[in-house]
């Protein structure tokens, strides 16, 4: 406990699901954590009591992203840990994929991470320490049909992770990616609901079918497990893990 005391973190897309799991794991180790995301104002007020505030910066707006990092540095004293988790999804065959959805998915799932890293890295270099964690996906390593924009963005995010990992290799700053498989988040629940409706399945049967198709363990990973890996990547034991893509996918990519 308290391994991250004195450190400050920004976690994007952190008001639910994986991002909130990571935020809570970092906070449990003593980090001051600033949340980011959209949603219910009352829920934000509640979460802000648990964390070091909330920033509703638009992850499609480079200026808003730079402002978010600047505010965090000013109000928290530093941004030592940056977790890029913001993401959206749209599913359609390539020839039917709406152009606006293509750009929206790439903007949130890939470009936002470039902008946060660009804004946060100078401060990390000045202080001589930093941890950048990009939440990619198994879809950063393999593909699935209907997810052209998401797969392209997540593959790109792993590429960005490698470049930043190399550019910071001679420093005490690391950059790595976590690649979850199926994690039961609101985003995945929507896919379960859609499958249940399409195939006329019960909720339990739809969950089982979704897992069986991809994840050999037959179990969802949890936000808490992803959070624990993020904490490890911030530890001295992970100092020489650089530019890596670490899977938490129940064997998905081992197939």
What is the structure about, briefly put?
By secondary structure, this protein is an alpha/beta fold. The chain has eight helices and seven strands; from the N terminus they run βαβαβαβαβαβαααβ.
What is the element string, with H for helices and E for strands? EHEHEHEHEHEHHHE
- Number of structurally distinct domains: 2
* Number of E strands: 7
CATH superfamily of the largest domain: NAD(P)-binding Rossmann-like Domain
> What is the CATH class name of the largest domain?
Alpha Beta
Radius of gyration: 18 Å
CATH topology of the largest domain: Rossmann fold
Question: Would you give an account of this structure?
Answer:
The protein is α/β, with parallel strands linked by helices. The protein has helices at 17-28, 41-50, 62-76, 99-127, 148-167, 186-199, 203-214, 223-233, and strands at 8-11, 32-36, 54-55, 81-84, 130-135, 173-180, 245-248. It is built from eight helices and seven strands; from the N terminus they run βαβαβαβαβαβαααβ. Strands 3-2-1-4-5-6-7 form a seven-stranded parallel sheet, with helices on both faces. Strand 2, helix 2 (41-50) and strand 3 (54-55) form a beta-alpha-beta unit. Helix 3 runs parallel beside helix 4 (99-127) and helix 6 crosses helix 7. The longest helix has 29 residues, at 99-127. The radius of gyration is 18 Å and the shape is globular. 45% of the residues are buried.
List the helices and strands and how they pair.
Blueprint: E1 8-11, H1 17-28, E2 32-36, H2 41-50, E3 54-55, H3 62-76, E4 81-84, H4 99-127, E5 130-135, H5 148-167, E6 173-180, H6 186-199, H7 203-214, H8 223-233, E7 245-248
Parallel strand pairs: 1-2, 1-4, 2-3, 4-5, 5-6, 6-7
